[in-house]
Amino acid sequence: MLRRLFRDYRKYILLFVVSMICALISTGLSLLVPVLMGQGMDKIIGVGDVDFDGLILIIKEMALSIVISSIFLWIMNGINNRIVYGISSDLRKRAFTSFVNARYEFVDSYSEGDILSRIIVDCDGISEGLLLGFNQFFVGV
User: Fold this and answer.
1) What are phi and psi of 85, to 5 degrees?
2) pLDDT (tens digit per residue) in 115-139
3) How confident is the model at residue 28 (pLDDT cuts 50, 70, 90)?
4) Three-state SS for 94?
5) What is the pTM of this model?
6) How far apart are CA 39 and CA 111, in angstroms?
7) CA 55, CA 38: separation in Å to the nearest integer?
8) CA separation (Å) from 128 to 40, 58, 84, 87?
9) Could you tell me what percent of the chain has a pLDDT over 70?
């Protein structure tokens, strides 16, 4: 089953690479924010001794990092949705084609709607699992 999914996934390889790049940028910028916070704390030396110009510059850098990180995370999630639902659509089409080409004895051996219900539920489960897996995988790596 996984081999078939990865075979279908090959046609989405460009989207996979773009998603991975977005994840790297988003995660890198997210990790930059605590470093900038530490630098901001270093600008506050004591009571009445604060480098406000340096602190404001660091706050602007933090805000920019957060905004850019959020944009790349949003793009990554959109790309992952496109990949997963493309794979899910291909899987549904193949399953429906198999159902249409199935012998009558096979279809008659199950209750009415049972086969189609299983196809729908299984495809939804696979797509949900892939979507959660891709989002967690890219950010985790």
Assistant:
1) -75, -25
2) 777 777 887 887 888 777 777 776 6
3) very high
4) helix
5) 0.75
6) 67
7) 11
8) 41, 40, 8, 11
9) 92
CA 117 to CA 16: how far, in whole Å?
30
Instruction: Count CB atoms within 10 A of the CB of residue 107.
Output: 13
Whether 107 contacts 67, CB under 8 Å: no
Distance CA 102, CA 124 (A): 22
The more confident residue out of 25 and 90 is 25
Q: Is 75 exposed, middle or buried (0-12, 13-18, 19+ CB in 10 A)?
A: middle
Q: For residue range 91-106, list pLDDT tens digits in order.
A: 888 888 887 787 777 7
Here the tokens at position 11 are 């046609």
Q: How far apart are CA 9 and CA 15, in angstroms?
A: 10
